Amino acid sequence: MRDVTLSDIPGTVGSIRVVRTAKRKRRQWIYGTPKSDASTDRVVPLAPWLADELRDYLTNVHPFSPTSTQGMKYIPHAPLFPGRRNRYTFDWAKPVHAGSLHEHYFAQACRECGLGSVRFHDLRHTFATMNQMSDVASDASFSGKRERFLAGA
């Protein structure tokens, strides 16, 4: 999430390309490559409803997307989700800080839904499990694994 830039979103906005990692260490962002060769340069499909939401976000909210209605120049390396300069101002040059997002929004939403303690990484496992259980053949490379799964096989 924090390592996705606008250049990782194809024009059709039906998927997201994963080519790098980003982690924060001592208030600095460190960029690298995924842990395994299977994780490098993979394309993760989006559910149609989520692709629609992302299209709307890129058009109406993100100022540097190629489809933005805000009249700003397209910046391919701009993070998909911005960090913050302060409590009231986004920093579109820096990615969102997952720890803050988890603490202030995600954990609270999970508690209110009765889910208890959920980590962002749990969403990756949920995605892989739901793909495996679906009626459609799913490729484990979406999650950075080499194996191929067929539901019901």
From TrEMBL:
<protein>
    <recommendedName>
        <fullName>Tyr recombinase domain-containing protein</fullName>
    </recommendedName>
</protein>
<feature type="domain" description="Tyr recombinase">
    <location>
        <begin position="1"/>
        <end position="153"/>
    </location>
</feature>
<dbReference type="GO" id="GO:0015074">
    <property type="term" value="P:DNA integration"/>
</dbReference>
<dbReference type="GO" id="GO:0003677">
    <property type="term" value="F:DNA binding"/>
</dbReference>
<dbReference type="InterPro" id="IPR002104">
    <property type="entry name" value="Integrase_catalytic"/>
</dbReference>
<dbReference type="GO" id="GO:0006310">
    <property type="term" value="P:DNA recombination"/>
</dbReference>
<dbReference type="InterPro" id="IPR011010">
    <property type="entry name" value="DNA_brk_join_enz"/>
</dbReference>
<dbReference type="InterPro" id="IPR013762">
    <property type="entry name" value="Integrase-like_cat_sf"/>
</dbReference>
<keyword id="KW-0233">DNA recombination</keyword>
